[in-house]
Amino acid sequence: MKKNILVARRVFDSVLERLRVHFEVEPNQDDLIWSKAELIARLQGKDGAFITASERIDAELLDACPQLRAVCNMAVGYNNIDLDACTARGVLASNTPDVLTETTADFGFALMMAAARRMAEGEHFLRRGEWDKWAVDLLAGSDIHGTTLGLLGMGRIGRAIAKRGALGFGMQVIYHNRSRLAPELEQESGARYVSKEALLQQSDHLLLVLPYSPAVHHVIGAAEIALMKPTATLTNIARGGVVDEVALAEALSKHQIAAAGLDVFEGEPAVNPVLLTLPNIVLTPHIASATVKTRLAMADLAADNLIAVLTGGVPPTPLNGQVLQPGLA
Predict the structure, then answer these.
(1) Model pLDDT for residues 66-108, shown as the tens digit of each residue
(2) Is residue 329 one of the residues assigned to a domain?
(3) Do both 78 and 196 map to the same domain?
(4) In this structure, are residues 65 and 44 in contact, taking their beta carbons and an 8 Å threshold?
(5) Number of domains in the chain
(6) Catalytic residue (choose from 239, 245, 266, 295)
(7) DSSP character string of 99-151
(8) Residue 25, in any domain of the structure
(9) Is the pTM of this model over 0.90?
(10) Of 24, 102, 250, 268, which one is the catalytic site residue?
């Protein structure tokens, strides 16, 4: 008898067909966002769940769904999953690292450039019909090449962005991370480790690429922005909660920094309405990994993990693989 799984958001038809070979599948191709109570109800009798960042997996949900054995996240970040609660209940959790690294790095660099070169502001200016002549200072922004790129967080995506800056644009790359990289990784990335204070003070373009946890909630707030250059830009492709958006909005409105680019928001899909009024910010709807090739690779990897766990195999990217080894969980 096939095991039962829930696919909590719309996915590619090819991925559903793969899953149906192994499981009885309850899909959500209408792409509804379920409440917690609705998600719990849908998970009754389910052995596994294919989830996204929209679904919060915590102790309350797990206790209400005792048959659940695997939650496989179609994302590299997993702050939507209480990993300790999963491990304590013998539920395997997984994510989708690596397959989105280069695509997300491309987007992060593009968003930084759009903010620095005032691309969104320029498009809006043109669309409003206000462009009537060339001017020497018309929407003059800041250079990327030859400037200092600062990275807060230096995992796979951070290192990929560092290479783009150092090798492609001749940037001086500095970074701050919870732990310093091994010398060979620093050399490969063309990056130099500095303190957080030095990172804020020296960066012409600061990119946030650190994973979210309560410890880094609002790690960039008013005090941190005050240390930045007035000509600097701030780009966030990490998670919305790492930036105090109220402080950022105030800083942008007062031109304490030049510009910002945000792909993630603290209350997404809701966006702080003040941010929507500011001309010197580029806003995108959490699409850093959104190419067809990459999103398909992410979905396939989440499916690979789910299939492996529930058919007795070895999941390729587990977050708590010890639950598969009796006595170690």
Answers:
(1) 999 999 999 999 999 999 999 999 999 999 999 999 999 999 9
(2) no
(3) no
(4) yes
(5) 2
(6) 239
(7) TTHHHHHHHHHHHHHHHHTTHHHHHHHHHTT---S--TTTT-----TTSEEEE
(8) yes
(9) yes
(10) 268
